[in-house]
Amino acid sequence: MENIIFTAFDIFNFGLLVFFWWFTLKHYKTLPKRIPVHFDFDGKADNFGSKIYSFITPVMGTTLFCFFAYALRHPETANFPVDITDKNKYAQFLIMEIFLRWLFVLVMLIFMNGQDYMFRYSFDENVKPRVPLSTAILSVIGSLIMVFILVAIFK
Asked: pTM (2 decimals)?
């Protein structure tokens, strides 16, 4: 059962990555020559660049997907906050597998939210991000807290 859930999660994550590339390629032609590439804490663009920069986050997402895929296939190479023993090995590897898949979803959603905001901001400086950056960061921090609690419980 666990393999079916992980396979579904992996297909979903790969689908997110494909959708991200599709979204970027679909909007690339409509972008102006200069787009915002960095925003300050108030959400105002403070650095601009060529529209080729719109491919940075999909490339980063692809790299992250490959890194996570490697880490999931070789869990013994990961750095765990507790010593791995025969007794806790299964639980710790399971926590890591779930967390890495979930973390990829969060990171891709953050990347896609940023990309969407960058594209919309290119045409209208008064738009707001669909999800505030603080909410996105808090979701990652909350997930980290949760995983550390689980790791400590199954130490």
From this structure: 0.88
